[in-house]
Amino acid sequence: MFGNIEIPGYKWNAICLALAIASISYLAVVRRFRYCRRAKIEAPFGPGKRDLSSMTVKEASSIMTELQELELPYAFSKARKMALLKAGGIPTMSKLFAVTGQNNKRNSGKRAVDTEILLRESQSQPRDSDRYMKAVARMNYLHDRYRRANKITDKDLLHTLGDGLAEILNVIERDEWRDLTDVERCALGIFHKNLGEDMGIPFHSLPSSTAGWKDGLHFALELKEWTIRYEEEVAKPTATGDQYVRVYVDSALSSLPNFLRSLVRQMLGADLDDVMRASLCIESPNPAFALVISLVRNIRKMSLRYLALPRGETAAVKLVHDKPSPETKLYNFARKGLQPWYMKPTFWSKWGPGSWLVRGFGGKVPGSRGDRYHPQGYDLMTIGPEPQKGKGIEEMQTDIEVMRARGVATCPFSNVKSGAL
């Protein structure tokens, strides 16, 4: 029978040689193409070419898209979640979450998804697009009354902006198969400076706010450094910080066994520095688990760097849907947790393999409990806490008109004095 067939030694040698040639060829192909996208992004800039100060808003947006959808989608997704978690480590912010009534088990899932949608919309759309302006105007409206009451300070908002940037840089440096180049960091700086301006966040706390920044890289590094110092200054353990984590982390994992919940908390602890870990009352991983986390992280890095071909355009990770649902004219969203907020009920989303895994962890499938999870989709003009639904339309329209009238500076750092706000 087939199991007893003997293959002559010379044939085994030929098979091994063919496998070795195929493996070496594949590794060579990976090495040849793995860094092509990085080289393409860097090509217009560098010694003897254009200065980083000449980078346009359009170029920065294109680089952001390449990084988020094709090059490093995992890092950008994780950075958004970590930045949202770390917001609770700032006492003034965690106290605000507690008094607004949104920091409870019933509302936390929707609030987290709403926040992520607004961030994704603003990060993925051109600055002069309607979707970007609507997303930013909605964030501004939801923050406005708390800013006027001084319950959200300018420094808190600057920290929120800076933490979004800092976490992208931190996650990529810690978890990814390659570092960002100065050109890519410059693009991140341009995006976050534009977003800060559109949100009305003063930059006075940054050292170069008067003289201006040389380029987006200069702004990005300065904002990150200020963010770290601000956390060291104000982040302290508080009851509301602990409550924030118990609501947004523990309650989301309530269907899991205790030991798995503990492991998730330790995984989060491994991604935080000592200051924020203490402020959020999250434990560090035990030595054995820390070794496992490090091993998995490094295996992933090496596998992507040496074994994985770059992601193709057809496999791009879209942050949001390009078009609204033809039926509802609203935008649906892909699942980002155990609750199916804004997910369209389809046969695959309700009965596919992923849905059974979600059910196994105690999650809900799209269409559960009727309209509870808004399966028809979301509207950027009304998204947010239920008490604010349908409110702020006039204020948002005014804000949108201001952004539209401001226009888009072609090269925001071409004049160093443009850095001041």
UniProtKB/TrEMBL annotation:
GO terms for molecular function: oxidoreductase activity. PANTHER family: ER-BOUND OXYGENASE MPAB_MPAB'_RUBBER OXYGENASE CATALYTIC DOMAIN-CONTAINING PROTEIN, PTHR36124. The chain crosses the membrane at residues 12-30. It comes from the Eukaryota. This is ER-bound oxygenase mpaB/mpaB'/Rubber oxygenase catalytic domain-containing protein. The keyword Transmembrane applies. Keywords: Membrane, Transmembrane, Transmembrane helix. The keyword Transmembrane applies. InterPro entries: MPAB (IPR046366).
